[in-house]
C-alpha cells in the first residue's frame, strides 16, 4: 500500500493543511512511511500570477520543511514524467519518506465554463493557444519513431472513448441515489413546522426595486468613456444589462446587488483573494 496525494499548485502553497500534514509525516504514531505528493502545477493556480500568490519561487517549497526531495518535471515530456515517478516510488520505498513530483504544465482553458483566462493572463494564454497538446506531441513522436502505427494510436483513442461513452450510458440507468444518510438533518427539533428556526428573528433587509435597478445598471456599464474593453466582457455586461431590464438575476448580479446595497449605505466593502479580479464566480 502506498499513499499518493494529488495537489494543485495554488492549494499546495496556500492551504495550511498541506504544511500541517508534512509535519505529521515523520511522527512515530502518525507516519504513513512516506507519501508521494503529485502537484499538477499549471503555474497560475485559479487565476493569479505566482508572485501575487506566494512568497517563494516554487509552490512546492513548502515541502522543504521536511527535506523531501522535489522533482520539477516538464509535463509535456511523458517519458521524463514516468522516469521521475519511478524514482519517487523507489525513494519512498527505500527511505519511507515523503517525496514530491512537481508536474510543470499549463491549463488550456478556464477554471470553469464562465472563466476566460485571456482577461487576466493574455500573454500566457497567447502562448498556450500555440502549444501542441501533449497527447498529439507524444503520439507524433511515437509514430515517427515507428514505435506505434497511426492505426494503433487511433484504435487506442477509440477504445478509451468507448469506455467513457459506455460508462456514461450506464450511469443514466441508475434510478436510485443513495444520499439520504448524509442529507438527514442532525437537529430534528431545530426548525418549526413551517421550516423557520424556532428562536431566531431577522430584521427586514430588503431594498427597493428602484435601488436594485440602479445597482444593476451601474454593474453593467463601463465607468470610463471611450474605453475599449474585451469583447467577451462587453457581452457579459450587455447580458447583465438585459437581465436588469427583465427583472431577472443570476448569481453574479445578485452578488453585485448585495455588495452595491451595502456600499450605498456607506459601509466599506473589501474583496480579496484569487478570484475577485476577474470575478470567476
TrEMBL record:
What is the required cofactor set for this protein? Answer: thiamine diphosphate
Domain Dehydrogenase E1 component positions? 2-179
Instruction: Report if keyword Oxidoreductase is assigned.
Output: yes
Superkingdom is: Eukaryota
Q: Please give the Pfam families that the UniProt record associates with this protein.
A: E1_dh
For this UniProt record, give its keywords in alphabetical order, as a comma-separated list.
Oxidoreductase, Thiamine pyrophosphate, Transit peptide
Q: Which GO terms describe its molecular function?
A: oxoglutarate dehydrogenase (succinyl-transferring) activity; thiamine pyrophosphate binding
Q: Which InterPro entries match?
A: 2oxoglutarate_DH_E1, DH_E1, THDP-binding
Gene Ontology annotations for the cellular component aspect, listed alphabetically? mitochondrion; oxoglutarate dehydrogenase complex
Q: Does the keyword Metal-binding apply?
A: no
Gene Ontology BP annotations: tricarboxylic acid cycle
PANTHER family referenced in this protein's UniProt entry, alphabetically: 2-OXOGLUTARATE DEHYDROGENASE, 2-OXOGLUTARATE DEHYDROGENASE-LIKE, MITOCHONDRIAL
Family classification: Belongs to the alpha-ketoglutarate dehydrogenase family.
**Name this polypeptide is given:** OGDHL protein
Q: Which organism is it from?
A: Cisticola juncidis
Amino acid at each position: 500500500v502506498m499513499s499518493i496525494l494529488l495537489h494543485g499548485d495554488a492549494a499546495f502553497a496556500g492551504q495550511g493543511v498541506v504544511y500541517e500534514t508534512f509535519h505529521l509525516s515523520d511522527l512515530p504514531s502518525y507516519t504513513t512511511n512516506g507519501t508521494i505528493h503529485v502537484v499538477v502545477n499549471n503555474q497560475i493556480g485559479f487565476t493569479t500570477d505566482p508572485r501575487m500568490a506566494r512568497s517563494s519561487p516554487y509552490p512546492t517549497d513548502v515541502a522543504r520543511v521536511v527535506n523531501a526531495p522535489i522533482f520539477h518535471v516538464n509535463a509535456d515530456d511523458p517519458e521524463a514524467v514516468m522516469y521521475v515517478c519511478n524514482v519517487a516510488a523507489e525513494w519512498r520505498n527505500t527511505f519511507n519518506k515523503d517525496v514530491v513530483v512537481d508536474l510543470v504544465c499549463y491549463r488550456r482553458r478556464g477554471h470553469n465554463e464562465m472563466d476566460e483566462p485571456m482577461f487576466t493572463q493574455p500573454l500566457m494564454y497567447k502562448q498556450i493557444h500555440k502549444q501542441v497538446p501533449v497527447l498529439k506531441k507524444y503520439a507524433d513522436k511515437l509514430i515517427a519513431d515507428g514505435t506505434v502505427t497511426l492505426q494503433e494510436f487511433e484504435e487506442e483513442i477509440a477504445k478509451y472513448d468507448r469506455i467513457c461513452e459506455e460508462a456514461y450510458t450506464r450511469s443514466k440507468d441508475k434510478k436510485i441515489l443513495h444520499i439520504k444518510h448524509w442529507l438527514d438533518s442532525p437537529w430534528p427539533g431545530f426548525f418549526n413546522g413551517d421550516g423557520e428556526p424556532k428562536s431566531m428573528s431577522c430584521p427586514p433587509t430588503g431594498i427597493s426595486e428602484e435601488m436594485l435597478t440602479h445597482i444593476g445598471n451601474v454593474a453593467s456599464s463601463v465607468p470610463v468613456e471611450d474605453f475599449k474593453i474585451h469583447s467577451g466582457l462587453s457581452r457579459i455586461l450587455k447580458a447583465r444589462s438585459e437581465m436588469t431590464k427583465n427583472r431577472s438575476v443570476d448569481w453574479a448580479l445578485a452578488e453585485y446587488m448585495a455588495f452595491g446595497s451595502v456600499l450605498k449605505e456607506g459601509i466599506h466593502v473589501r474583496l480579496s483573494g484569487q478570484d475577485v479580479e476577474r470575478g470567476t464566480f
